[in-house]
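Q: Start with the shorter request: fold the first protein.
A: Done. Sequence, then structure:
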Amino acid sequence: MKPEDSALLRYAVNKLNEEIGKGSFTSQDEDETGKALLLAMDEAIGLAHELTPDDHNWFLSAIAKRHRVRKKMMAKIRRTHLRRWGRGLLLFDDVLATAEVLNTAIQDAIGEWVVDNEPSIKRSSLLGVQGILGGKALKCLLLLSLHSRACSISNEIRLLAEHGFPEAVRARTRSLHELGVITLALSVHGQADTSVSDRYGAWTLAEARKEARAVASQGGTPDPLDEQEAELERRAAATWGNDFFKQNGWAAPLFPGRRPPIPFSDIEQLVNMEHMRGFYMAGNDAIHAGPSALMNRLRLRDGSVFPTVSEVQHQTVRHFLAVAVIALSDLGSTVCRVVASITGDFDLLTGVKVVRDAEDRTVLEFENDGMRA
């Protein structure tokens, strides 16, 4: 179509000429003319159903057809994945169920320990701020939360893989890896040590500061800290210095003699997880809008240059689901060992055996390339 044949542009130009005719501005005033034309085009778009009824009806008809097409397409993709990975996905379900049962067992062990040690736990406040949990109880709670979130993310990964969303699988596996690195970092100085976990628990203050700056930069008014939070912030600055509030300042005890900021990759290397860097970077590409990630989506099939819905990508399923299983199992085993050490419930470690057995069965299925004929 030539510009002069556009009904929408014709409407906008007529509106622009009306404004010029009224003396609102002159045709030589390029800034005002440009602004007025854009406003007139917005108005034309709002009237598109009247100005271009054929085009508008075509869109409505194509949308109705697309509903049917995408339903069939997504069902076909799911069937394709199940033919190849159905057994692996069932084994993945077993890993998830095992992890969820382990999480309940960890929660119960912590609960019993809290009941038995309530007086001493209440005295272990964070930086001496009454009402804010610190010490071993905080560490247990953080670890339980990390494992709970890992379970939730792993459920997402499983569903995303079955339904054909490889980028989302990579992105959520990246998140799972981050949780695993932090879980290991909290116990670098020992399972009962709380020097890092206390700082990690207090680092919500640094996140609150960052959020407040973002709100203020947009002219908003950040929510003030409550009395306990304000006192915790004051004590954190007095005890750990203002460097604590910089990037990953909570991890400073892991790097003696070094001041924050601390890149995540350095923490990753410290806990011997750098072998996962390739998977982590693939997850980065799946999250961010870098040009490589965009062009790597070039497919030229099914009438599209780039996919807009789900797709079959067997190698992503094969490698990333195996990685997700290993990451979830490693994280669960670490949490189980630390909580058992703190609470004294060493029979809880039976869960490590069960988790590892489920992991081995599932990873082997993906390593063997599923049910490929």
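Q: Next, the second protein, separately.
A: Sequence, then structure:
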Amino acid sequence: MRKWLPLVAICLGAFILLVDVTIVNVALPRMADDLDASFSSLQWVMDIYALALASLLMFTGSLADLFGHRRLYAAGLTVFALASLGCALAPNAAVLVASRGVQGIGGAAMFATSAALVSATYQGRDRGTAFGVWGAVNGAAAAAGPVLGGLLTQGFGWQAIFLVNLPIAVAAVYLTLKVLPAGSRGAGRLDLPGAAVFTLAAAALTYALIRGGEHGWGDTGTVTAFVIAGAAAVAFVPVELLAPHPMLDLALLRRPSFAGLLGGALLLQGAAFGGLVFVSLWLQNVLRLGPIRGGLALMPMALTSFVVALLVGRFTHRAAPRIPIGVGLLGIAAGSALLYAGVSAGSGQYALVAGLAVAGVGVGLSTPVLVSAAVAAVPPQRAGMASAAVNTARQLGMTLGIAVFGALFSSRLRHVVSGGGSIRAAYASGLDRVFLVSTIGALLGALVVLALVRHAQPSVTGAPVPSPASPSRDPEPATPAAN
């Protein structure tokens, strides 16, 4: 039994960092009341955390290679715990948003090292089991966030959703230092320009989408933010091409399987989870459900995703990766379509059950395979970089999903209310638009994966998965079966 204690330490960290992506969903109305927060501030409470994760995953992976995986994982847990305390004590929305950003920094350090720690700790069949459990935790954590958030918010106040992280983080740090292998420090350099340009592009695009939904797409601030995002995205290409130790080797994007997995990961996360915050607002502001009932209304997704990932996760690694990922995205599309067809102005909470359950099956099928499939699609010396890139795409999908859906949702609310419609009709119209775009996004992701991802089979029992490193441009061996 002792051999699984390292996995417990890793899964504890993975759970709190991923559950915090969505745990604030059902607490947002209480936060808005207590902190007098605007709708855009509420979006930033969600988005700044996922944005920090997306922006810093590859960079913190390079730090892990320089200073050691266990050391950076423990440091990330500590930063995450302290930032969680800052969130709980926040006197206003600005401090809360800033603390959530610091949470994301700690979460990035944890997320960037967890797969490498699993791979370095276990061998053979145990590694397959460990990755199956770790994948199940990853797949279920974000879906379980609203349920846990509802229970904690109604029982103890919204501050409890952050305070609960403290004892879990302390236990994880203790186990990490006690049972995880120390590892060794590596060599190399940090790609500071690449990290800065990528962060600027992602942050400016997110800001532009949120501001556009609130102030209009022709607003000077919105247009300026889009221009900055575009310029930074363009600049990222030469910065990475000229870097001796690039954060992302752009040559990997010429591999169809790898490019398809990145696109699928981005669309999967946005379609499955980006709209949940607005469903939570509908449950509490329109249906007048408390946080507990509002969180429980979202439980079908949490249950089915966890059960499917746990039962099927080990077996899906044996199949061509495009099958579970592509079918999973089709399941998310089907669930979103059921929500689009089932939710109307006269609907109650039970209109969500079928759609969320089906979408959860899709999440459980696809999520555990993403990282190992990306690792199998690139040369071995780029494995850590591939792992970081696909997780970055997931968190960026969540960030942009919230921003896009927020713009659509608020636009429909204003349009219906200004036309004399009821608040109930306005929320239903906004959710219809969210579910429709989710369906289209998941279908597009499925098509991308099924068309581009080839039949290379990921192996969780082969070579260890390094952290998201930034290796130098050494000649790469030919890997005809991996692209």
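Q: Describe the second briefly.
A: The CA atoms of residues 220 and 279 lie 31 Å apart. The chain has 18 helices and no strands.
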